[in-house]
Design brief:
The chain is of the alpha/beta class. About 25% of the residues lie in helices and about 30% in strands. It has three helices and seven strands. Strands 1, 2, 3, 4, 5, 6 and 7 form a seven-stranded mixed β-sheet that branches. β3 and β4 form a beta hairpin. The N and C termini lie far apart (about 30 Å).
Length: about 130
């Protein structure tokens, strides 16, 4: 289900925001995390690499299309997965650079400067 950036808490566009990974980048196509800002609480925010297709596709064709289209235009597709904000990102896994790019695009979506966003990553263990 798509998420409108205007439905997100206002502090995401007004405060210094940190995204903290709850899982490691090397663990695969899904990285759970949390957005937080001092004095404002937190919002669950996960990353999903939507092109992962083995053993089953993680996203349907429509979501993949929309995510690729948004990315091509310098944006990121925001969706809700299990009541959690999720950034649908083209690819099959995450690198530090890809996470930074996704968060910069989220900042842009909520009207903030990427200079006000920071990222805390976990390395994780690669899945076979």
């Amino acid at each position: 289900m798509p998420v409108d950036p205007f439905d997100l808490p206002e502090w995401l566009g007004e405060s210094d925001v940190e995204w903290t990974a709850d899982g490691g980048l090397r663990t695969g196509h899904y990285v759970p995390g949390t957005l937080s800002a001092e004095g404002h609480g937190h919002v669950a925010c996960d990353l999903l690499a939507i092109d992962e297709a083995y053993p089953t596709p993680v996203a349907d064709d429509r979501v993949r299309h929309d995510a690729h289209q948004a990315w091509r235009h310098g944006q990121v597709l925001l969706v809700e997965v299990g009541e959690r904000l999720t950034l649908a990102v083209p690819g099959t896994r995450f690198t530090a650079d890809l996470v930074l790019d996704a968060m910069a695009r989220l900042a842009k979506a909520v009207g903030a400067s990427a200079d006000h966003y920071s990222v805390r990553l976990r390395i994780g263990t690669a899945k076979p």
